[in-house]
Amino acid sequence: MDIDNLLQRNILGGQEYEPLFPRVSCDKTKLGNGNTFDTVRMIKQMVVKYNYQTKEVAKVLQQSSLKETCDKIYWFLYNLIQYKADGIEQNLRSPACAFKQRVSGVDCKTYSIFASCLLANMGIRHYIRQIKQPSFRPDLYTHVYVIVPLNQETGDIKDGYFIIDGTTSNNREPIYTMAHDTDVNLPHYGLNAPIAKGKRKTIATKTTTVAKESNKPVLLGIGAFLTGLFLFGKSN
Fold it and tell me: How many distinct structural domains can be found in the chain?
């Protein structure tokens, strides 16, 4: 089975969105080796570091309801960014790099980073889900995508959830035998303090914190695995 041919689609031009992203060179940086759980950890770190790149496009894509917003994000990913499975090298692209390389294509890991960054800017609680699939290397986590709990107050997926999977033509959740969910809530800080007399104003240093991983089970999908066959096997 040729996963690229199976999941590729005719994408739209998307030139109207280009001004909403910062310009990047897409230079590679070695992030290290690891398994699928290391990959999801790196995905979280990418979201914390690069969510600012989707600040402007998030304003355009956010809709009046949670479902409409998730549908719009899926539409954007599926129709404007081509799919292409990673080979041995596992590539985690920032949103700006993904959009720059949208014609050549990205895999499920990058779709998940992009969706998570958008949701973070919208203040929407969500999880990165990795799954084992019965029909494809059932012993491994082979796919990753985003799930958005209907209950935004508690984040409990038992109340139901939407999915955002840019690899699929119908945005439906794949059949899986095991799943693991990782919370990607970003840290928030309140900044205020009086300036002491006689002290000069100082420049605050930027602090970033990666959210704790949830104890809920995690799901992975097919696009991630096929790429993940290398990514997760060594480490769509």
Answer: 1
Domain-embedded: residue 178: yes
Residue 29 lies in a domain: no
pLDDT of residue 5 exceeding 60: yes
Measured between alpha carbons, how far is 128 from 107 in angstroms, rounded to an integer?
15
Helix (H) or strand (E) segment spanning residue 77: helix 66-80
Banded pLDDT at 205 (limits 50, 70, 90): very low
Q: E strand or H helix at 116, and its extent?
A: helix 108-122
DSSP calls for 146-181: EEEES-TTT--GGG-EEEE-TT-SS-PPPP-SEEEE
Number of Cβ within 10 Å of residue 23's Cβ equals: 7
Q: Quick check: is 9 in a domain? A: no
CB–CB of 165/133 below 8 Å? Answer: no
Mean pLDDT (whole number) for 91-107: 95
Q: Is 144 helix (H, G, I), strand (E, B) or coil?
A: strand
Strand, helix or coil for residue 175: coil
Query: Is pLDDT larger for residue 63 or for residue 38?
Result: 63
Judge contact between 60 and 82, C-beta under 8 A.
Answer: no
Neighbours of 204 (CB within 10 A): 9
Positive or negative: CA dihedral 195, 200, 206, 207:
negative
Tell me if 61 is assigned to some domain: yes
Residue 152 lies in domain: 42-183
> Per-residue pLDDT tens for 100-147?
999 999 999 999 999 999 999 999 999 999 999 998 888 888 899 999
CATH number of the domain to which 179 belongs: 3.10.620.30
